[in-house]
Amino acid sequence: MIVLADCNNFYASCERVFNPKLKNKPVIVLSNNDGCVIARSNESKALGIKMGEPAFKIKDIIIKNRVYVFSTNFALYGDMSSRVMSILRDESPLTEIYSIDEAFMDFSAISNYSELAYKIKDKVSISTGIPVSFGVAKTKTLAKVANHIAKKYTDDNIFIMNDSIKILKKFPIHKVWGIGRAHSNMLTNYGIKNAYDFMNLNESWVQQKMAITGLKILRELKGVQCFDINDYPKRKKSICTSRTFPKDSSDIKYIEQAISNYATRCAEKLRKEKSCALHIGVFLNVNRFKNSDRYQNGFRAAMFEVATNDTMKIIEVSKLLLKSIYRKNIFYKKAGVIVGDIVPENQVQLHLFNDSSKDIKIRKLLQSVDLINQKMGRNTVRFLAQGLSERQKLKQENLSPCYTTSWEDILKIDC
After folding, report:
1. Going by C-beta distance under 8 Å and a sequence separation of 6 or more, which residues neighbour residue 281?
2. Paired sense of beta strands 95-99 and 2-7, if any
3. Is the pTM of this model over 0.70?
4. d(CA 258, CA 319)
């Protein structure tokens, strides 16, 4: 059996762990610069607050219903996720971390999987305070369906799917894992309204319309396992680092520093997973709501001669790409750097005139920089292109303390 463990309203739950007064209260978490809603408690959902809705549009709802609003605290959420996933891995060695709040576990060799699911749920709750739902079924796709039922229709947040037919007849096609909006609309046009209808389609027709992934989803709904548990992280195909600016800016120096910071983050991520990138792209976006008459978005890309994770090379090329798309007197809202064509660093194809001795020195230097920044804090050692002064901080008016990752924010109890 496959088990999907999914943390309930994860970001909101992380805030509640250290702030008991939030229990049973409406809570929302906003995106960077306190822009849009990216997480909601069940109480907020009941008020009609939608995912992705701009905060300024629901100001009246927030005030009227006394909704607790928080800025994103990724340091806290990431650490709480690591604690939950560590517990899951202890109980089930074959565990695939699917996202920050979801993990698949393989219970195929366990006979008392129901008992183990309850044990893990209690252990996570006691150790972290995070509520978790468990969906148990024969395949990953069915486990997703079971988890949905566990969250919505059970009191103990655990559902074991034994008879799937009755459930799949009522399960909307657009909610099936792996079926996106385009395929969902296409299937609806053909009269396919639920998972059961989809499961009974001709396999050749499904493969023709939805490729091999669609065929695998169909077979998984029938109880045939097609998607295995991957207990090792996959190498990323691309890495993107981007941010919206706290204020729209036309200052080329400020934007250059931002791009250099994003390039630095991309290089750090590459080195962390022992990879190199051959392709790089830079983009600049304006605020289309303020610049409808001067809509200007730019993107440029380039290829390195040799795949690299050298921060200095990535910054150099990203700044050149920025200059080719920047336009004076236009206020930009967002910028980002994307690296792609990622390969393992031990499989990089060198060229004839490559200076290996220089590469070794740079690699050692960057390893030392990473180690210092890891121990002493990000940007303890930084590149000049990133700027000497502190960057303008994100707008985070409702940021909660980093209870688990900062000594300054650790909870204090007066006895």
Report:
1. 299, 300, 301, 302, 321, 337, 338, 339, 340
2. unpaired
3. yes
4. 10
C-alpha distances (whole Å) from 399 to each of 24, 307, 352, 414 are 20, 38, 52, 24
Beta strands in 100-209, from DSSP E residues, in sequence order: 102-106, 132-137, 158-160
Q: Distance between CA atoms of 354 and 359, rounded to whole angstroms?
A: 8
Q: CA 280: distance to chain centroid?
A: 21
Three-state DSSP class for residue 406: coil
Number of C-beta neighbours around residue 328 at 10 A: 6
Amino acid identity at 380:
T
Q: How many helices (H) and strands (E) does the chain have?
A: 13, 12
Which residues have CB under 8 Å from 153's CB, separation 6+? Answer: 159
Residue with tokens 């576990």: 105
Please report, to the nearest 10 degrees, the dihedral formed by the alpha carbons of residues 321, 272, 75, 384 taken in order: -40
Each residue's pLDDT tens digit, 98-133: 888 999 998 887 778 888 888 999 999 999 999 999
Gap between the Cα atoms of 152 and 144, Å rounded: 13
Structure tokens at 184: 């969902």
Tokens of 152: 């919505």
Q: Give all strands (DSSP E) within 158-237, no chain letters.
A: 158-160
Q: Which amino acid is at 357?
A: S
Rg of the chain, C-alpha, whole Å: 24
User: Quick count: other Cβ atoms within 10 Å of Cβ 177?
Assistant: 18
Burial, 261: exposed, middle or buried (Cβ in 10 Å; 0-12, 13-18, 19+)?
Answer: buried
Question: What is the rounded CA–CA span in Å between residue 230 and residue 245?
Answer: 37
- Model confidence over 183-218: pLDDT tens digits? 999 999 999 999 999 999 999 999 999 999 999 999
Q: Give yes or no for residue 141 having a pLDDT over 80.
A: yes
Cα end-to-end span (Å), the chain: 48
Taking Cα atoms as reference points, which of 73, 79, 3 lies closest to residue 34? 73
Cα 248 to Cα 180: distance, rounded to the nearest angstrom: 33
